[in-house]
Amino acid sequence: MSDNNRLKAFLDSLSFRDLTIAIELAITGYILFFYIGEIVAALPAERQDAGWASMLLLKVIATSIVISIAGQLLLSFVSDGDMDKPMDEREKQVAFSGCQQAYWVLQAGVCIAIFQYSAEAHGWPSSVQLDLPFLPLHILVVAFLMAELIGYGTQLVKSRIGA
After folding, report:
1. pLDDT exceeding 90 applies to what percent of the chain?
2. At what angle do helices 135-161 and 89-122 cross, to 10 degrees?
3. To 10 degrees, what angle do helices 135-161 and 16-41 make?
C-alpha cells in the first residue's frame, strides 16, 4: 500500500472529533517547531534583544490564531453538522483525560520556569547556564505548547484505542 493510500485510509477511519484533534495536534506541533527553529536560527545578538523576543512571541501567537481559525473554518464547512453535536460520555472522558495529562506538563513547566527565574535572579550556581536570554520565558512558552501536544496526543490515542 502506498503512503498516500495509507494516509487516506487513516483519515477515513477517523471520526470528525478525532480529525479535529489530529488537526489541532498538527497545528500545535508546527507552531512548536516554528518557535524552536526561530530560536535556534537567531544570531546571539538577536537573542539578547528584548524586542526580538517580543516579536517572536507575537509571531507565534499570530500564527497560532490565524492557523487555528482557518482550520476551524475549514472544519465547519466539511462537518455536516458534526461540530454542533454535543459530546457523549465517552468523548467527555477522553477530553478530560487529555486535559489531565496536559495540566501536569504545564504545571511542571511553570515550576521549572519559576525556579530558573529565581536561580538567575539570585545568581545560584544551580541555574541552567545557557546562552539564551529570557530563558524562563522560553521555558513557559515551550511548556504551554508541549502541554497542548500532550493533551491532543492523549485524546487522540485514547479515542483511537477506545479507552
Report:
1. 28
2. 160
3. 160
Decide: helix, strand or coil at residue 16.
helix
Helices 16-41 and 50-78: crossing angle in degrees, nearest 10, is: 160
Point out the least confidently predicted range of 31-40, 45-54, 62-71. Answer: 62-71
Which tops the pLDDT comparison, 108 or 91? 108
Q: How far apart are CA 15 and CA 90, in angstroms?
A: 13
Alpha helix (H) ranges present in 79-126?
89-122
Alpha-carbon distances, residue 60 vs 38, 42, 64 (angstroms): 10, 15, 6
**For 81, left (φ over 0), alpha (ψ -120 to 50), or beta?**
left
| Residue 128 grid cell | 541552567
Using alpha carbons, list the distances in angstroms from residue 33 to 6, 8, 87, 147.
25, 25, 31, 14
Long-range contacts of 157-161 (CB under 8 A, 24+ apart): 158/94, 158/97, 158/98, 159/15, 159/17, 159/18, 159/21, 159/91, 159/94, 160/18
CA distance 69 to 41: 28
Q: What is the DSSP letter of 52?
A: H
